[in-house]
Amino acid sequence: MFTLAQIKQAYDKVHTEIDFKNYIQELIELGIKGYDTHVTDGRVIYYGDTNHEVSTDAKYDQLLIAGTANKERFIEYLVTHESGQTDYYTFCQQAAQCGIAKSRIDIIEMTCTYLTSAEDPIVIEKIPV
């Protein structure tokens, strides 16, 4: 069973895209199948085999998630963020305004899905490896 300390140790090695590939491989070796990042407070829940989960603490004060998703606006914010024009917290604020409640990384499928509070997928991206 994996621990937050093991995950942090693997994450601390990430400085480049190649490092990220190694990070994903380490997570797989730890038995992690994916993780959810909650936009409301930055908390991350890692999940693996036999329903084993570990969770981080909240990283910032609670954000209010809009009740209606705005996919087009969210995609604009996502593109801006992925091009390095916004910091992570700003992106989380923008995601909340667009009705995005969490992102789900599926390590097996190598996808990142942005979901509403009702678990409706808004955007699904393939993670390059």
TrEMBL record:
It holds the Pfam family DUF1398. InterPro entries: DUF1398, YdfO-like_sf. It comes from the Bacteria. This is DUF1398 domain-containing protein. The lineage of its organism: Bacteria, Pseudomonadati, Bacteroidota, Flavobacteriia, Flavobacteriales.
